[in-house]
Amino acid sequence: MSATITGVGSGFDIDSWVSQLVSAKENSILAPLETKLSTLESKNSAVNALKTKYSTLQSALQTFTKTIYNSSTDMWSNTLINSSNSAYATATSTGAVNAKNVNLRIQQIATSTVAKSVESLGIVNSTNVQNAKFVNLANGQAKAGSFTMFLDGKEYAIDIGENDTIKQIIDRISEVTDKLVQANIDENGNLKISAYKKVGNWMNTTYEVDTSAELVLGSSGDTSNFAAALKLHDKTGTYQYSSAYPISLVNTDKSITSAESGLDGVEFKNSWGQSANSGTITINGVDFEIDDKTTINNLISRINGNSEANVNASYDSLTNKFILTSTQTGENNISLSEKNTNFLQVLGLMESSGYNSEKIAEGSQTLGQNAIAYINGNKVISTSNTITGESSGISNLSITIKKPTSEYSGNSEDDREINLDIERDHTKVKEALNSFVTAYNDVITTTKSYGSSTGAIGNDSSLNSILSQIRQITTTLSDDNGGMYSMLSQIGISTSSADITKLSIDEKKLDEALSKNLDSVKTLLSDGLTSEANNGLFDTLLSNVTNILNTENGYFANKTNSLNDQIKSMNNRIERANTRLVNYESRLLLQFNRMDQTISSLNSQLSTFTSYFS
Predict the structure, then answer these.
(1) pLDDT at position 4
(2) Rounded CA gap, 324 and 314, in Å?
(3) pLDDT exceeds 90 at position 93
(4) Any residues with CB less than 8 A from the CB of 31 and at least 6 apart, and which?
(5) Residues 281 and 300: beta-carbon distance below 8 Å
(6) Does residue 434 or residue 20 have the better pLDDT?
(7) For residues 129 and 145, what is the distance between their CA atoms, to the nearest angstrom?
(8) Roughly what angle, to the nearest 10 degrees, separates helices 555-611 and 14-29?
(9) Other Cβ atoms within 10 Å of 23 Cβ, number
């Protein structure tokens, strides 16, 4: 506390004396107060812990009350639906389904509308392809480097430079192989590479296709992807390779107005034919602005990033076409328009229909189809492959169809059906009842433990009364719910044989009650489901628990407020006691210092007096 003294004048151990006296005083006035404070804090913690148990019970009971049933999930209406073949159809429910069995025959599933370029993009012909740089092909994925060919086992290496055109590469193949391998491009942009042989004599030599030759393109050591980039996948015999698709000149990473894009004639002009800086294409009512910096890849990314356009955009590098696929199924067109640009015309999705007028290009859109199914013999048409109760007439049932049932046996004339077996699923109800019993037993156990004479809260008449009320409600006879069951014990919830203060569940008896009369079980627990009476046993128990937890005048609010007041008062008393101890120590130090000075003075006088007789 204060600075210590040494007792220099007297030689006494004054520090020890003061310490012992203060300690004794502290034990007599402070220790009892701190013990009482600890007891109050422990009691407060116990009250909070018990309150948590009651809150858990309240939540468990609220699962059964009408306010919870007004939510989107209703455990009483859960159903279990089994499909006889889930590869063709499955189903889920959003509530009670008033059907035991559904027979389903699927004629066709719904598909999406697809808008696709009518022709390959750009002007693809022999001249354009020959003049194109190789590295610009295959949507910019073609690679320069070395490429190897083998003719009847003999190897020929072809070097392809960054600036080489297709014509230069074709000429190089002919030169390196002494015209024994020749390539040509037809007017549709298709490439063909063939083995040739010399015909005639040295004075009159010609070349013709050698159908007996063995021509192989490429080796594992090549650094150029020549064959892949030009789609040389089709082979005739052993002597000839052909491109599977016309060679694409489109590069989707280049500006749509640049020559490198491979497109032809993209313009930005207003309705008066004057140049514009940008234009707008509209897809299903959603506008996308484009300009001379826009690339196909950038536009695709923007379209796919906008869910309101209801389409997915893509570019097919094999067929060289731009594609829009509706994200919604059904027989509906994809709406397209453009302003200040002819971009959709260039893509082959729109065509002119007179002065400043356009229409969907003929043959560009393949309409999706509606789903057609027969549910319990009734024909149902849906734009979606998810058939809801609005379409089927079966409330709360959602059927997802996956493919026609005619494929079931492989016979298109087969009317084979899928069966959906529907039954009530009581799993959630049973889980909720188990949660209630667990929470109830926790309340009973904790209340008895804390509220005993030796418990943390102590013998509390109010708490004992609360416990008695709660136990009484669970054994009460409910006469006015109008159902088959009037007591919890009738549905398998009764006092435990091991401890009559707790509840236990007879699973077999509960299952029987739920299957036999579910509505009576519901009204027994919470009559508020069917009326405003709230006479269900759980309604009554919840009301009781809610009152206990009331934040203004409930048991826990009152108890906590009382304990907090006592704790505050006790802290004030401890603070005053500490002040008294400090003052007590100061007085002792002052008194002992005076005594020490007196003794020191007396010792000095004695020494002087003694010296007279020396």
Answers:
(1) 47
(2) 7
(3) no
(4) none
(5) no
(6) 434
(7) 19
(8) 160
(9) 12
Half-sphere exposure (CA, 13 Å, Cβ side) for 465? 6
3-state helix, strand, coil in the chain (%, to 5): 40, 25, 35
Q: Distance (Å, rounded) from C-alpha 593 to C-alpha 595?
A: 5
Classify strands 145-151 and 154-160 as parallel, antiparallel or unpaired.
antiparallel
Instruction: At 263, list the tokens.
Output: 């497109």
The reported pTM is 0.64
CA–CA distance, 557 with 565 (Å, rounded to integer)? 12
Beta strands in 255-319 (DSSP E): 278-283, 286-291, 311-316
CB 282 within 8 A of CB 288: yes
Q: Tokens at residue 585, please?
A: 């120590």
CA torsion sign, 204 to 207 to 213 to 216? positive
The confidence score (pLDDT) of residue 603 equals: 76
Residue 231 near residue 318, CB atoms below 8 Å: yes
Would the pLDDT of 413 be above 80? Answer: no
State the Cα–Cα distance between residues 247 and 318, nearest whole angstrom.
Answer: 8
Instruction: Give me the mean pLDDT over the 131-157 stretch.
Output: 93
**Over the Cα atoms of the chain, what is R_g?**
47
Output the CA–CA distances (angstroms, integers) from residue 96 to 253, 258, 397, 427, in the order listed.
54, 61, 8, 14
Structural contact between residues 369 and 114, judged by C-beta atoms closer than 8 angstroms:
no
Q: Is the dihedral of CA 430, 431, 435, 441 positive or negative?
A: positive
**Residue bearing tokens 């799993």:** 427
| Other beta carbons within 10 Å of 154 | 9
Query: Residue 205 corresponds to which tokens in the numbers above?
Result: 């030599």
470: closest CA among 66, 186, 184, 53?
Answer: 53
Residue 347 has pLDDT above 80, yes or no: yes
Q: How many CB atoms lie within 10 A of CB 335?
A: 15
Which helix (H) or strand (E) is 68 found in, with range? helix 66-69
H helix or E strand, kind and range, residue 17: helix 14-29
Mean pLDDT of the region 332-340: 95
Looking up tokens 């497109």 gives 263
- Domain regions of the chain by residue span: 14-40+558-611, 46-74+427-551, 80-110+370-424, 133-242, 265-356
Amino acid at 77: S
Phi, psi of 488 (to 5 degrees): -60, -35
Percentage of the chain beyond pLDDT 70 is: 93
pLDDT at 522 (0 to 100): 87
Q: Which two tokens stand for residue 486?
A: 């009037």
Q: What 3-state class would DSSP assign to 395? A: coil
Q: What is the largest CA-CA distance in the chain?
A: 163
SS3 372: strand
Q: pLDDT class for 412, splitting at 50, 70, 90?
A: low
The predicted-structure confidence for 527-548, as pLDDT tens digits, reads as follows: 654 445 567 888 889 989 999 9
Q: How far apart are CA 248 and CA 138, in angstroms?
A: 6
Integer CA distances (angstroms), 247 to 126, 158, 162, 318, in order: 10, 20, 18, 8
Between the CA of residue 371 and those of 63, 86, 329, 414, what are the distances in Å?
39, 17, 9, 18
